[in-house]
Specification:
The chain is an all-beta fold. The protein has no helices and 7 strands. The mean pLDDT is 88.
C-alpha cells in the first residue's frame, strides 16, 4: 500500500504490540515475523509495518507470499487481512 501524504497523511506511529505477519515459504512452511509498528493515517486507518532483513519497512500485505496478520494471544482462529 502506498501512503499518499497529501491525501491521507500519517498522523501517528504505534509499536507493533506483539502482532505477527505470517508468510508462506516456497516449501509450503509458514514463517512469522513481528510487526515493528502500526501507522495511523488521518482517516483512522491503521497500516501494519514489517521490516526486512535490510531494515526497510513495508506493509506486509503487499508481499506476494503474505498469509495473514495475527496476535499470538488472540482466541479466534480467523485471520485479519
Amino acid at each position: 500500500m502506498t501512503i499518499d501524504s497529501a491525501i491521507n497523511p500519517v498522523v501517528a506511529a504505534l509499536p507493533g504490540g506483539g502482532w505477527m505477519a505470517e508468510y508462506k515459504q516456497d516449501d509450503g512452511s509458514l514463517e512469522a515475523y513481528p510487526l515493528v509498528a502500526w501507522l495511523v493515517l488521518a482517516d483512522g486507518e491503521m497500516v501494519p509495518r514489517d521490516a526486512s532483513g535490510e531494515g526497510d519497512a513495508h506493509d506486509p500485505r503487499d508481499v506476494g507470499n503474505f498469509q495473514r496478520l495475527y496476535h499470538p494471544d488472540a482466541i479466534s482462529s480467523d485471520p485479519v487481512n
